[in-house]
Amino acid sequence: MTGSLLSPLLVPVLATEGGGHPFEHISTAAAGSVIDLAWLIPVVPAISAGLLLLFGRRLGRLTSGVAITAIGFSATMATLVLLELLSHPSGDRTFVVDVAAWLDIAGFTVNWSMLVDPLSAVMLMLVTWVGLLIHVYSLGYMSHDSRYERFFAYLNLFAASMLVLVLGSSFLVLFVGWELVGLSSYLLIGFWFEKKEYAAAAKKAFVTNRIGDVGFMVAMFIVFATFGSLEFAEVLPAIGTAATGTLVAIGLLLFVGATGKSAQIPLYVWLPDAMAGPTPVSALIHAATMVTAGVYLIARTSPLYAAIPDIGLIVAWVGGATAFVAAAIACAQVDLKKILAYSTVSQLGYMFIGVGVGDYTAGVFHLLTHGFFKALLFLAAGSVMHAMADRTDIRQMGGLWRKMPITGTTSLIAVLAIAGFPFSSGFYSKEEILAAAAETAGTEALWVLGLLVAGMTAFYMVRWFLLIFTGPKRWEGVTDDAGKAVFHPHESPPSMTLPLLLLAVAAAFGGLLNTSPEDGWLHGWLGNTVEAFHHTSEIIPVSWHLPAALAVAAIGVAISIWMFRGTDAKKVQTIGVGGGLVSIARNKFYVDEFYEFFTVKVGGALARGLSRVDKGGVDGIVNGAAGVTRSFAGQARRTQTGYVRSYALGIVAGTIFLGALVAFAFIGGSV
């Protein structure tokens, strides 16, 4: 891949080790060791969440301390687990820790077991440490909220849910975490449920994810029917024993689940609306937890997708299409957080390109670097909203860098990282994904699409930064009805700026985790956990990869600077207006309206039609039969007069009738 081109430019990192195949060797953790106690990583924040929900009101402001201590414990444990794994040889880093028995029904046994390996370790580090910074940030951001205590309980619950998902040693345990993440997101997105649109956004996220979850559940049924187990350590090594058609069904159904959680076409529509939640929630969902679950699922089941590469290409193309559509929408938005939301959808598409073409390390690498710079971007957005009376229209901002130097500088670092500026974290991870697409047969066009999206990303993110932090102060002179200034921009308190500074360091230098696709540290670290990438195409020369990526990013930056540098109050009136393609993109390609038409109007009409069929057809037959019976009974009822003479007459008539029948039968027999 691009290692030969990039290596002279890059700083060497930790020595790498050879790769193997997932689950070739399962080790046993020593009793009482850090790995043996890894189950505490999700349990402690889960217990904390329960206690805060029960006793939060009594604890008052101490709830934040309890919540931060719980997630801090998990972050410390995650670090110790990583260090413990580093001390083991590369082929001896996969551990399954049984915590307790869960189900034992007719030979079907499911244990509460934790899978500790290099992949889960890096995910633990991302979830816990970024989660910890978001908890700290929330001290300042949510300080005046009336449900301060409940918010921190929900944050702990969200983190615990994601940690169960990451550590689950089977499809079923992972699915428990998967569903808990969905529940937690519902609670946090709809945290300010008094506003109807916020409650609707929470329901939209919950329902949309349930669609994907059905695919996941059916996939689990097929897995168990085929392999007799749901344990990764038993199913994935036996992939070669199953029929190709069965593997295709499992792969497609799991991907349906992934499209829900990781917001890919066609189930991406919930994620932009998730901005209804408090900004720390946006950062947690978009960077460290929920949206990464689908990518993690594909990487975890890499032996499955390696056996059905054509399905992997479907994954990659869906990712590419999602990346392009979301980037196009982001280019036309003017809402501070909506731009970042569609950016998340687009960057998730990049991750699916990586895992879809078979470079699972590249996909996980971008998952990590995206967690750094996207968490930073959302927290910076929250800092801006904190200073601008919760306004989110970037046309009303400008010139905030001088008022908010820490927020502005850290935002610039994050923008450079997501735009792929050389030697930033996003530069390395995005380039590795594009190189993998260029070197996979049948995805050369996907490489071109990825380049286009890279240029669009640079364009809309630089636009985001310029309209917020540079140019004239378009917020000056805005007054309320009493003639007082509405906006008083100021830097956020240390509890909010400290996480920005730490995340800025990660966004700037996180690329050192894998400076080369062949011999970077992350490549060696994940070598025995995910299937290795094998390039199958040489159509696009390696020497084109890096220059092409840098060129399109530079073009995007240049166009954005040319269009939006120094935007004044008059020029800003032209932003976010107009018709044509811009209008279509601004209205999100009318996808929400399309879904509403088919689900609400067409679905409602179909439901009403079926209701008529049910009432007029099914119920009509049943009610008609009952009517006939009722009519017959009514006629028969008339014979019940209550007079003895009537009954005697009836008996006599019946006797005569029976006698006549017997006589006729006798006469007929004689003849």
Automatic annotation (TrEMBL):
<feature type="transmembrane region" description="Helical">
    <location>
        <begin position="62"/>
        <end position="83"/>
    </location>
</feature>
<dbReference type="Pfam" id="PF00662">
    <property type="entry name" value="Proton_antipo_N"/>
</dbReference>
<feature type="transmembrane region" description="Helical">
    <location>
        <begin position="281"/>
        <end position="299"/>
    </location>
</feature>
<feature type="transmembrane region" description="Helical">
    <location>
        <begin position="406"/>
        <end position="425"/>
    </location>
</feature>
<feature type="transmembrane region" description="Helical">
    <location>
        <begin position="175"/>
        <end position="193"/>
    </location>
</feature>
<protein>
    <submittedName>
        <fullName>NADH-ubiquinone oxidoreductase chain L</fullName>
    </submittedName>
</protein>
<dbReference type="GO" id="GO:0003954">
    <property type="term" value="F:NADH dehydrogenase activity"/>
</dbReference>
<dbReference type="GO" id="GO:0012505">
    <property type="term" value="C:endomembrane system"/>
</dbReference>
<dbReference type="InterPro" id="IPR018393">
    <property type="entry name" value="NADHpl_OxRdtase_5_subgr"/>
</dbReference>
<dbReference type="InterPro" id="IPR003945">
    <property type="entry name" value="NU5C-like"/>
</dbReference>
<feature type="transmembrane region" description="Helical">
    <location>
        <begin position="239"/>
        <end position="260"/>
    </location>
</feature>
<dbReference type="GO" id="GO:0015990">
    <property type="term" value="P:electron transport coupled proton transport"/>
</dbReference>
<dbReference type="GO" id="GO:0042773">
    <property type="term" value="P:ATP synthesis coupled electron transport"/>
</dbReference>
<dbReference type="GO" id="GO:0016020">
    <property type="term" value="C:membrane"/>
</dbReference>
<feature type="domain" description="NADH:quinone oxidoreductase/Mrp antiporter transmembrane">
    <location>
        <begin position="170"/>
        <end position="456"/>
    </location>
</feature>
<dbReference type="InterPro" id="IPR001516">
    <property type="entry name" value="Proton_antipo_N"/>
</dbReference>
<feature type="transmembrane region" description="Helical">
    <location>
        <begin position="364"/>
        <end position="385"/>
    </location>
</feature>
<feature type="transmembrane region" description="Helical">
    <location>
        <begin position="339"/>
        <end position="358"/>
    </location>
</feature>
<keyword id="KW-0812">Transmembrane</keyword>
<dbReference type="Pfam" id="PF00361">
    <property type="entry name" value="Proton_antipo_M"/>
</dbReference>
<feature type="transmembrane region" description="Helical">
    <location>
        <begin position="647"/>
        <end position="667"/>
    </location>
</feature>
<feature type="transmembrane region" description="Helical">
    <location>
        <begin position="31"/>
        <end position="55"/>
    </location>
</feature>
<keyword id="KW-1133">Transmembrane helix</keyword>
<feature type="transmembrane region" description="Helical">
    <location>
        <begin position="119"/>
        <end position="139"/>
    </location>
</feature>
<dbReference type="InterPro" id="IPR001750">
    <property type="entry name" value="ND/Mrp_TM"/>
</dbReference>
<feature type="transmembrane region" description="Helical">
    <location>
        <begin position="214"/>
        <end position="233"/>
    </location>
</feature>
<feature type="transmembrane region" description="Helical">
    <location>
        <begin position="544"/>
        <end position="564"/>
    </location>
</feature>
<feature type="domain" description="NADH-Ubiquinone oxidoreductase (complex I) chain 5 N-terminal">
    <location>
        <begin position="102"/>
        <end position="152"/>
    </location>
</feature>
<keyword id="KW-0830">Ubiquinone</keyword>
<dbReference type="GO" id="GO:0008137">
    <property type="term" value="F:NADH dehydrogenase (ubiquinone) activity"/>
</dbReference>
<keyword id="KW-0472">Membrane</keyword>
<feature type="transmembrane region" description="Helical">
    <location>
        <begin position="311"/>
        <end position="332"/>
    </location>
</feature>
<feature type="transmembrane region" description="Helical">
    <location>
        <begin position="496"/>
        <end position="513"/>
    </location>
</feature>
<feature type="transmembrane region" description="Helical">
    <location>
        <begin position="445"/>
        <end position="466"/>
    </location>
</feature>
<feature type="transmembrane region" description="Helical">
    <location>
        <begin position="151"/>
        <end position="169"/>
    </location>
</feature>
